[in-house]
Amino acid sequence: MTQQRNEVKAGLIGFGIQRSLTPAMHVREGRAHGLAYSYELIDLAERKMTADDLEALISEAEARGFSGLNITYPCKQRVLAHLTDISDDARRLGAVNTVVLRDGKRIGHNTDWSGFAEGLRLQLPDADMSRVVQIGAGGAGAATAFAVLQMGARQLTIFDIDKARSAELAADMATLFPEAEVLAGQDLGATMLSATGLVHATPMGMDRHPGLPLSAELLNPPIWVAEIVYFPLETALLQAARHRGCQVANGGGMAVFQAVGAFALFTGLAPDAERMLAHFAELTGAGGAVLAQPA
């Protein structure tokens, strides 16, 4: 199928994705560029499918003239086997969240890590990367770990309820960033005493997973706190960190800037990040600025 030059079709493949704000952000920005932009949710849960069906779903998208696909849980690693090429950073990270479909090729990229990095850079431009602690070693944790190490973290200690998973991620990142010290954490309380920053990369704090991932007593300046959760934008962790005087970065940055990166890849156009941030604020009811401002 041949698309008109001003028509862009995109979609998101994942499980349980009905609440995603990515489609709305893409469509609004596409229309601002004069594009006939459509974005579909390809929900494995709704279709009663699994990651084993990725080849069929990607082939269907190609046949329908899609420009690209975003990929989320549980497919970010599984999709690698179905691509013709992959960007250097996605190859190093071992995960893809954006696939460009063009001229019969399937090219994988990762805008998760770059989205997190940009959100953190804008919200906390002077963040001390000397000794960073991360809670969470899943798919999102791989992206955030990669991001802080790319941003120059000299030491990163990774904690997870699954100690084998945190050890595996730490080993992977140590191989990718030999100039940094990357460790699997053992004692969170003791490690936080000398930390300069905390990255939270688990679902805790979301509407359906309320609570704190660590004791609020461990949050003391000059530690900064960065979050990936954006439902709600102001999580219990960020509230506790603010209350104790820490500078914070919310999850809105990662949510918006991964979409900014994917939009550019799908269309070849430069999206207006400020406009997309403003739209995200509307969608989340944030009112003012989406990104937390340094104190």
UniProtKB/TrEMBL annotation:
<dbReference type="GO" id="GO:0004764">
    <property type="term" value="F:shikimate 3-dehydrogenase (NADP+) activity"/>
</dbReference>
<dbReference type="Pfam" id="PF08501">
    <property type="entry name" value="Shikimate_dh_N"/>
</dbReference>
<dbReference type="InterPro" id="IPR046346">
    <property type="entry name" value="Aminoacid_DH-like_N_sf"/>
</dbReference>
<dbReference type="InterPro" id="IPR013708">
    <property type="entry name" value="Shikimate_DH-bd_N"/>
</dbReference>
<keyword id="KW-0560">Oxidoreductase</keyword>
<dbReference type="GO" id="GO:0050661">
    <property type="term" value="F:NADP binding"/>
</dbReference>
<dbReference type="GO" id="GO:0009423">
    <property type="term" value="P:chorismate biosynthetic process"/>
</dbReference>
<dbReference type="GO" id="GO:0005829">
    <property type="term" value="C:cytosol"/>
</dbReference>
<dbReference type="GO" id="GO:0009073">
    <property type="term" value="P:aromatic amino acid family biosynthetic process"/>
</dbReference>
<dbReference type="GO" id="GO:0019632">
    <property type="term" value="P:shikimate metabolic process"/>
</dbReference>
<dbReference type="InterPro" id="IPR036291">
    <property type="entry name" value="NAD(P)-bd_dom_sf"/>
</dbReference>
<dbReference type="InterPro" id="IPR022893">
    <property type="entry name" value="Shikimate_DH_fam"/>
</dbReference>
<feature type="domain" description="Shikimate dehydrogenase substrate binding N-terminal">
    <location>
        <begin position="12"/>
        <end position="99"/>
    </location>
</feature>
<keyword id="KW-0028">Amino-acid biosynthesis</keyword>
<protein>
    <submittedName>
        <fullName>Shikimate dehydrogenase</fullName>
    </submittedName>
</protein>
<keyword id="KW-0057">Aromatic amino acid biosynthesis</keyword>
<comment type="pathway">
    <text>Metabolic intermediate biosynthesis; chorismate biosynthesis; chorismate from D-erythrose 4-phosphate and phosphoenolpyruvate: step 4/7.</text>
</comment>
